[in-house]
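Example: L-aspartate oxidase.
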Amino acid sequence: MIPKYLVDVDIQALPVVETDVIVIGAGIAGLFTALRASETSSVVMVTKKSLLDSNTRYAQGGIAAVISEDDSPEYHLHDTLMAGAGLCERDAVDVLVHEGPMGVEHLIQLGTQFDTENGEYALTKEGAHSQRRILHANGDATGYEIVRALSEKAIAAPAIEVWDNHFVIDLVTENNVCYGAIVQKNNGERLFLRGKATVLCSGGAGQLYRYTTNPEVATGDGVAMAYRAGANIRDMEFVQFHPTALCYPGAPRFLISEAVRGEGAYLRNIKGERFMEKYDERLELAPRDIVARAIVSEMEETKSTFVYIDITHEAEDMIKHRFPTIYKYCLDYGLDLTTDWIPVAPAMHYLMGGVQTDLNGETNISRLFACGEVSSTGVHGANRLASNSLSEAIVFGKRIVDRIASLTPVEQIPNIVYKTERQPHAMQPFVERRLKLQKVMVRYVGLKRNRQGLQRGLDELNRQRAIFDTVLMEREEFEFANMLTCALLTTTSALYREESRGGHYREDHPQRDDENWSRHTVLNRNQGQLEEWIEYV
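Written out as structure tokens, the predicted fold is:
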């Protein structure tokens, strides 16, 4: 069994820092939650790098909310449920579509400057949306603009203390109550950060895969530490691969936003042929899982490592105005978005599963909350609808703060001592172990899966379990342990679900099976595998 703590713990022997609310991570979820909480409480934000390093910073497309008079919450709800392939929690989606517009207004009040046209907010359309409801900023730099505005406010807020370059090793829990976290400073010193509420906003797990649009910090830390603490981890098999990441020698897997297809771009194979009509009547605007698998099928059929995205038929001025970041990035590698077809391939983008929460963002552990990509609120189901993630973070961030306001301070903390026999690790360097894990995930737990491959992947991952019995000291060691935990959870869940749905595709079970699999996969360290049946609506 994976241990409860990655390090030996003696709470009374650690220095203690107290605050009201602990926010672990940054991005839109962490920043927005911290700002809301700071209106009435003291807050410590812990980031393992800095406030600007998160998935939010790289979000290009925008944020989905019902703003237009031609749109409605009912349309947004329908689109989200359809994309989620039957596994969305309708109550959670209902909360999102009705409270999202108010959350966007709050972002604007906090200084976010969304693009406008003729005095109104400029709205675009993305895959699987029936209406134009995506607000964007600086064309294709929405995430960066949101993080800029919120981080400026957070740094200036007197009630918020920001701890950059600190690593949260584990959550401190006893009798199903969370009392805070064990934090390691850059110099190796550890302390106990104590609070009346702890909010995980640590983002996703893109680094499980060799090719990802996520930054280096996305190593699944929040999911892993919550699992060790006894939280329910739900639907980890549903991994979203973004269909169109730049695939060019010497260039990182840079995201080519879904909004590019929303504005009329075509997908072409290396023969120059449009191919989406073979796979879905919605063509390039089909849900991400369908487009990503279609691209892989074309790559296999043409024996290529990429396909092309082509927007050269649109006006040059529109392309440069709407996608300035993408245009400049491609130009740095000698690719001109206005005249060239851009080589792209799928890359790991978003984790639909995560730490299970209720409608107030609370987990099954008292005083422990989760917000943003680390959470499983029920909004995304088996396949996230484009641009719903930023909306989810602000809607549930507000709800978390409202719930925290009703909590009383922790009176007394039990004397928690956890010690095990741990051996020094004399194994291969962690950079090599990390690359090996990523290769296993790409080969066996990628876009197309089957029982034989998943079992082989699980066997290879299990051979790495010895890491949990060794003395871990450095950030890269903790990150690898967290990545291995998430990889095991993802592979176990994928092996269990014998059907294809949303971001989970089984070649040996290629059909969606509502009769047998209308349920969530829930894993709990203490209770094993649980199931949650849901009713279709």
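The CA atoms of residues 448 and 505 lie 5 Å apart.
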